[in-house]
């Protein structure tokens, strides 16, 4: 591909380190991986959405892996083998291999995927490919509270750095960055509010889901997601019982994290191979307390309250 003057300018944006294992740059008020910037822009202009597409959108470390597993096993439950079948795709592949990211996959031909396609993205709402809005495809957004998201992220990037023989990211400096909005695909609040406003403007096209609600009522939230995707659990499935329950069980933290593919397997990414087990740490709500002080928690709560003021959103 020919390198344009704009590409040169983008390649020369100042890099920021410390919020992940890889440098980010500030592009249109969002922090994106420097090495993925050109690909993000290319995706934005060239990706062709279909009206039947369903996108799973999130900030990293918000429950993306879990949502992918739940949505995939619901949407395709008719052609898929029985959940207990050892050939069920989730038993042999990591959810990220099954539901690809549109802005990251380079070696996958997304255009050859049959409809309805289940795809994913970490892109902020205003950087989504224009064809998504034009095509009328649906988006399920999962949001997680910022304290657990930050802590999950800090551990994740440090596991990758540790594997590469690098020093861990200093906690306090990284936390200050997060509070200042510097995080992968961040600022956190802009990303969340972008999708929140989109869901309020058109709830038939954008469904807003909270990780904490999924933890509290996984079956209820699964039914909401399935209904939104256009594959509600039928009366017959409800009467027969156990279909939604079976999906929740297969996709639960214990079940997924103990599968051999998720203990031993690796995920090829544009950066390097990530171990699948990095996507399963402990899960749950409130784990931030084991890393952040109460004062740090309060600080993040105050920022969140002021950023979400007037939006009708609370996390
Ligand atoms: P923790 O680091 O707090 O444990 P993502 O999938 O967006 O990368 O998010 C990863 C977070 O989701 C991690 O949180 C991970 O443990 C948690 N997670 C992964 N699978 C899960 C599941 N099946 N149920 C609940 N949480 C899950």
Which secondary structure elements does this structure contain, and how are they paired or packed?
Blueprint: H1 5-11, E1 24-27, E2 30-33, H2 37-46, E3 54-58, H3 64-75, H4 89-92, H5 95-98, E4 118-121, H6 130-135, E5 138-143, H7 146-163, H8 171-179, H9 188-201, E6 206-210, H10 211-216, H11 218-229, H12 235-240, H13 243-251, H14 253-258, H15 260-264, E7 266-268, E8 273-275, H16 294-308
Parallel strand pairs: 3-4, 3-5, 5-6
Antiparallel strand pairs: 1-2, 7-8
Helix pairs in contact: 3-11, 3-13
Task: Quickly describe the structure.
The protein is α/β, with parallel strands linked by helices.
Polypeptide structure, described:
With about 325 residues, this protein is of the alpha/beta class. The protein has a single domain (about 10-310), classed as P-loop containing nucleotide triphosphate hydrolases (Rossmann fold, 3-Layer(aba) Sandwich), CATH 3.40.50.300. Helix content is about 45%, strand content about 10%. The chain has helices at about 5-10, 35-45, 65-75, 90, 95-100, 130-135, 145-165, 170-180, 190-200, 210-215, 220-230, 235-240, 245-250, 255-260, 260-265, 295-310, and strands spanning about 25, 30-35, 55-60, 120, 140-145, 205-210, 265-270, 275. The strands form three sheets. The protein has a four-stranded parallel β-sheet, sandwiched between helices. It has a two-stranded antiparallel ribbon with strand order 1-2. It has a two-stranded antiparallel ribbon with strand order 7-8. The longest helix has 18 residues, at about 145-165. The radius of gyration is 19 Å and the shape is globular. The N and C termini lie far apart (about 45 Å). The model has no long low-confidence stretch (mean pLDDT about 95). Adenosine-3'-5'-diphosphate binds next to helix 3, helix 7 and helix 14.
